[in-house]
Amino acid sequence: MADHKSETIDISGCKTAILRGGSGPTMLFLHGAGGAGAWSPYMDALAANFDLVVPSHPGFGMSDTPDWLDNMSDLSFFYLDLMKQLDLTDTHVVGNSLGGWLAMEIAVRSTQRIKSLTLASPAGIHVQGVPKGDIFLWDPETRVRNSFVNQTMADARLAAVPTDAEADIALKNHFTTAKLAWQPRFYNPDLRKWLHRIDVPTMILWGDSDKIFPVPYGHALKELIPGAELRVIADCGHLIHQEKTDEFIAGVNAIAGAAS
Amino acid sequence: MKFFFFHLMPYGALDLDYLDKHESPWVTLPNTYYDPKKGFELYHRYLDELELADQLGFDGVCVNEHHQTAYGMMPAPNILAGALARRTTNAKVCVLGRALPLINEPITIAEEFAMLDNLLGGRFITGFVRGIGCEYHASGANPAFSLERFREAHDLIIRAWTEPGPFEFEGKHFHLQYVNCWPRPYQEPHPPIWVPTQGSTETVEWAAHPDRKYNYLLTFSPIKSVQANMDNYRRMAEGYGYESTPDQLGWATPIYVAETDAIARKEAEQHIEDFFNKFLYSPMEYKMPPGYSSLGSYKKVMEQKMRVRMKHLSFDNLMEEGMFICGSPNTVVETLQKREQDMKFENLVAMLQFGALSAEMTDKNLRMFANEVMPKLQASSPQGARETIPAAE
Predict the structure, then answer these.
(1) Do A137 and B28 touch (CB under 8 A)?
(2) Nearest Cα to Cα of residue B150 among B291, B305, B347
(3) DSSP, res B383
(4) B364 within a domain of the structure (yes/no)
(5) Is-cis flag, bond preceding B183, omega within 30?
């Protein structure tokens, strides 16, 4: 496992938990609705080539829930502050699901500190006539099962019994996700108007069997971000970095390499 | 004790086999299950029942708000309160209540309630609620802002009713350049406000506050929980430095009265089981959307609900938990006397129609309750409770 550290840094008045490991060009990983969790195999794989920074968003994990956090706009300005305060430059930004939406919200505001974007099954837009899955109506088991094609992975996830502290964090993450994404459900109607402002190389990764945001979302997004590449990954659900880690890493490396 | 007849106006014609194909009568049950011709008949039958309660001497008749559900056909309860205004004479008309956070312009609630108060010449009681969890799926309102929006909408409505307009209102969620409520409420300073609740910590602290002292109405919960929540309200009041009075407390419960205990059970058993298991039922994700209450309250409610609500509730379970009162007039009187002694509340909100309970049985239930239960309880009410009725009555 790559050397990594865990620290808490005050950013915009929010005590922010940050995992950091590896060396090389800077990479900022923006986690999804489930939170950053502990240092994981996919982080190890990213840290092999990059100086990987994985904050827990405000309202998630061990980070504070600041009073100012109401919406994705607040969160994106927070991350502009974070990149400035940590002096992250030429940053390869990788975002999964909610984190992918966040990456786009940050990038339409400013790509000054961003070198490339990788969006793994990101939320953020709505595609007319393509029904999404509703993680707020699914029970916890259905939520896990519908996130993976490989049900052995789902079984393993479901078999793990969380500690009380882990269960509290999972609930906190779910609450903050609702605050950010309940209405409109996982998108910002204004975002698509400004996606043309993204002027850095962008890789879009999508699981061919994503039950939350089906593949047509990937195709729609490719049309909205100038020059973006879309890779649809076979036999893969919503959590690409977990279910198809090799393809995920290959996608990140391809765009980050092209941008460097 | 005061007696209110509460009607949920369920879609009693529901095909109760729906659970074979659908997981809830809320939000996702296709509205193809609803037949407007049957709806026409039910609305008028239910209004007849509320009007009969007025004639039978009930202190009030009550309607409420739910959305996208067979559980209750009243997404807009004020419409029915308007109809009742013209056809009732003595009973208070009570809207228990409107779900404030669901509305993007809560000034409309201030206006509509003020209209009703005028129309009723002050014979009006309002209810302010956050709406149960399902409403947040049905309306799209963000449950994470439910409490903030509830309090802010409340503040706007109270100011609209009590401060000379026009004035500006600048909140976090609601922004109005001109607040100038026409008509003003008939009652001074404004209609009574009841807070129907299942007893969250946030609600009791807020409702019992000396600035408000709102009537705290516990709904459809196990009796231990109702008792604990009423005690909690009294303790909260003491903490604020005053002694709460029984008129600040209410209890809403289904009741069925018949000639004997055995007849009552025979007639009501199926319908009360259907009410709790088929109409009120919904999975936890429907009932408790994330952010609807604080993390602490959420965990507490989840534990309680897991214990009681997530199993099939049989007639015997419901009687043991004190969630249903059923029997001969004597049985019902004795049960209510004991509850009144234990819980020292004044307002009994009796739900005398539930599920698919027929027009005939509802009619009988209303008449037996009014003629054979109410008089005995009015006669036997503890002196202390009567003395505390405010002079405004």
Answers:
(1) yes
(2) B291
(3) H
(4) yes
(5) yes
pLDDT tens sequence across A95-131? 999 999 999 999 999 999 999 999 999 999 999 999 9
As given in the structure block, the two tokens for residue A83 are 């990149």
Whether B284 and chain A come into contact, CB under 8 Å, resolves to: yes
Contact B291 A138 (CB under 8 A): no
DSSP-derived 3-state class of residue A179 = helix
User: What is the number of domains present in chain B?
Assistant: 1
Residue B141, chain A, CB below 8 Å: the answer is yes
Closest residue by Cα to residue B100 from B10, B214, B188: B214
**What pLDDT score was predicted for residue B382?**
56
β-pair partners for A51: A26
CATH number at residue B231: 3.20.20.30
Domain with B58 in it: 2-387
- Tell which of B23, B26, B142 to mutate to test the A interface (max A CBs under 10 Å): B142
pLDDT in tens, A13-58: 999 999 999 999 999 999 999 999 999 999 999 999 999 999 999 9
For residue A139, what are the domain limits?
4-259
Lateral strand order in the sheet of A26-30: A4-11, A14-21, A51-55, A26-30, A91-96, A114-120, A202-207, A229-233
Strand pairing of A4-11 and A14-21?
Answer: antiparallel
Q: Is the pLDDT of residue B393 over 60?
A: no
Would you state the pLDDT for residue B299?
Answer: 82
